Amino acid sequence: MTQVKRHLVTCALPYANGPLHIGHIAGCFLPSDIYVRHLKSKGEEVLFVCGTDEHGVPITLKAKKEGVSPQEIVNRNYEVIKDSLTKWGIHFDNFSRTSRPIHHQTSQDFFTVLYDKGVFLEEVTEQFYDKEANQFLADRYIIGECPSCGFDSAYGDQCENCGRTLSPSELINPKSSLTGNQPIKKATKNWFLPLDKLQTEFLNDWVATKKDVWKSHVYGQCNSWLTDGLQPRAMTRDLDWGVPVPLKEGKGKVLYVWFDAPIGYISATKEIETDWKKWWQDDSTELVHFLGKDNIVFHTIIFPSMLHAHGDFNLPTYVPANEFLNLEGDKLSTSRNHAVWLHEYLEDFPGKSDELRYVLTAIMPETKDSDFSWKDFQARVNNELVAILGNWVNRVMVLTHKYCDGIVPPNSDHVDYNQLEEAEALVRQVDESILKFKFRDGQNHLMNIARLGNKYFQDAAPWHAIKEDDGQQRVEQILNVSLRLVQKFAAAAEAFLPGTSAKIKDMLQTGGELMAGKPVTKPVLLFDKIEDEAIEAQLDKLAKQASDNKQQPDLEPIKDTITFDDFVKLDLRIGTIKEASKVKKADKLLQLSVDIGLETRTILSGIAEHFAPEELVGKQAVVVCNLAPRKMRGVESNGMLLMAENTEGKLVFVQPETEFPEGSIVR
Question: How far apart are CA 460 and CA 478, in angstroms?
Answer without folding.
Answer: 7
